[in-house]
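The protein record filed here:
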Amino acid sequence: MQTTRTCSVCHGTGEIIQEPCETCHGRGKVRKQPKIKVKIPAGIDDNQTVVLRAEGEPGEKGGPKGDLYITVKIKRHSIYTRNGNNVLCDVPITITQATLGADLEIPMVDGTKEKFKIPDGTQTGTKFTIRNKGFRSINSSSVGDFIFTVIVQTPKKLTKEQRELLVKLANTMNEQPPIKKRGLFG
């Protein structure tokens, strides 16, 4: 009966190191954790991979190093969302801004502000687009758009004067003003 197995001294390489070095003990590799600076390209999206050539594991028997693959995870933002190369955002405005129109300063992703004029009579949920203010495409020179949705905020508390003015406005528009109820018996 015969069996075959890998040599426990040379590990199948056919070479026996007579005086192994103190650092690697004859394996030819030393384990360490280097710090590497990685340049992430502008416009990279979630789950895309950056490849660093010759930054991976060392090769066998003096061979070249392998490649290091880094998969990018994009952290969610509280204000902005992304759809391809487009940036999406909700912008709150007041009733008077929606009714009369307004010049808004829209905060961009890069920290700058862009002036944008919304027309009078703007309804909540209306979308506006600022061209070429989104993310750059990695493989081309195209740039996405910045798309913001207007959300009209109705005031929760009014002063007596503000309420009277709104009631007068409602009367001029032939609307029925809201009736303030005092309770069940009053």
The CA atoms of residues 39 and 131 lie 27 Å apart. The chain has a mean pLDDT of 87.
